[in-house]
Amino acid sequence: MGNSSNNQAFRQARFLISAASSKQFPGGEALEVAFAGRSNAGKSSAINRLCDNRSLARTSKTPGRTRLVNYFSLDDHRRLVDLPGYGYAKVPTDVRKSWERLMEQYLTQPTLTGLVVIMDIRHPLKDFDRQMLEWSRHFELPVHVLLTKADKLKKGARSKTLLQVDKQLRQEGFDASVQAFSALNGEGLDTLADKLKDWLQL
Ligand SMILES: Nc1nc2c(ncn2[C@@H]2O[C@H](COP(=O)(O)OP(=O)(O)OP(=O)(O)O)[C@@H](O)[C@H]2O)c(=O)[nH]1
Ligand SMILES: [Mg+2]
User: Of the bound ligands, which one is closest to the alpha carbon of residue 128?
Assistant: First the structure.
């Protein structure tokens, strides 16, 4: 476990830009993999673990920390994107609407190659997660589900949840891969890295 040497490409990650609206999306000829999920699920922590850089994406115990579309570049043609989380507290309708608009604009970017949908392994497949999966199916976007905070469950409960989520996805007709992950101890890191290398042609 931990960061193995074949994950070097991700260690090159550098902050690129925080976009508050689609006008600020960098666009151009590039491949992007985005991380989506409910607020506090562990998106920023997963990116930091993958890139072996604790200060890359800002993490917080306060939900709703990442409100912008944060871009990190691996090289001139490859990017990781930390999407704003959703589902914290009750947000006013106009805030939710503007988030939905931003998401829809982001998810239809031609640069987007694949979406990592992050769920807390203790609370998988909430309404919001299904909405992300539905959108991805609608936009024909490949999805990889990361059941994170796996360190919070014992081994038996972990593999049981993994099997259940996989089965549920299949029953609902979603063509997504799924794995357990922990930003804390690095479990599942190489599986995630392999998926992203495939998507990013690394
Ligand atoms: N034990 C454990 N804690 C984790 C893990 N990943 C994230 N956390 C904790 O969960 C909290 C939220 O993590 P973030 O990475 O900031 O979550 P986020 O999805 O980026 O949250 P927003 O930006 O608010 O949407 C922090 O306190 C992290 O330390 C993990 O794998 N294991
Ligand atoms: Mg975050």
Answer: 1
Helix, strand or coil, per DSSP, at residue 76: coil
Instruction: Give one DSSP letter per residue of 160-177, joined into a string.
Output: HHHHHHHHHHHHTT---E
Structure tokens at 183: 């930003």
Residue nearest to atom 21 of ligand 1 (CA): 40
What single DSSP character describes residue 154? Answer: -
Asked if 69 contacts 26 with a C-beta cutoff of 8 angstroms, the reply is: no
d(CA 57, CA 162) in angstroms, rounded, equals 26
**Are 120 and 91 in contact, with CB atoms under 8 Å apart?**
no
Angle at CA 117, nearest 5°, toward 112 and 118? 140
Would you say 147 and 181 are in contact if contact means Cβ atoms under 8 Å apart? yes
Instruction: State the amino acid at position 148 in one-letter form.
Output: T
In tens digits, what is the pLDDT along the chain, a chain of 202 residues?
A: 444 557 899 999 999 999 989 999 999 999 999 999 998 999 999 999 999 999 999 887 666 556 789 999 999 999 999 998 887 666 778 878 888 888 889 999 999 999 999 999 999 999 889 999 999 999 999 999 999 999 999 999 999 999 999 999 999 999 999 999 999 999 999 999 999 999 999 9
Interval between CA 28 and ligand 1 midpoint (Å): 31
Residues with CB under 6 A from ligand 1: 37, 39-45, 59-61, 63-66, 85, 148-149, 151-152, 182-184
